[in-house]
Design a protein that fits this description.
Layout (H helix, E strand, L loop, with lengths): L1 H51 L6 H48 L2 H14 L30
Amino acid sequence: MAASASASVSAIRAELADARDASRTAREAAERELRVSVVARSRVADALERTAARPGLQEAERARLRAEYAAADRVVAERRAAVDKAREFEAAATVVADAFETEAASASPLAAALIELVGSKRGTSARGRTATVSPRRTAPAIRLGGTRPRTA
């Protein structure tokens, strides 16, 4: 049983390290995409500014450039939100990994619960037993006619 628990602890450490690495990679990719979108927006802004004082420019051309800038600005906002989300996930992965290291060293109930959770995710518990799946199917939710779904 001790060998199984230590194997589970090392497996959890490996999974947490993988999660930390994956979250760092995702954050770096999101930051690269944000930089690319900021550069694209800057180029459109420069083109729009160059046409501002140019006499004889068609209003349709100015409208097209404004629409391009608005689209580029939306992309920047979406990418910035993705970067923020990736940073939050990376921070969370780091906190969980660090907390597990602290708790696993002290053999706390929290570490035991994490070991049990990871074991159940794989289909076996930390004690080496196979997890049982209930054969009972749940009925789908039925919406009565005339009722409106609730909103938050």
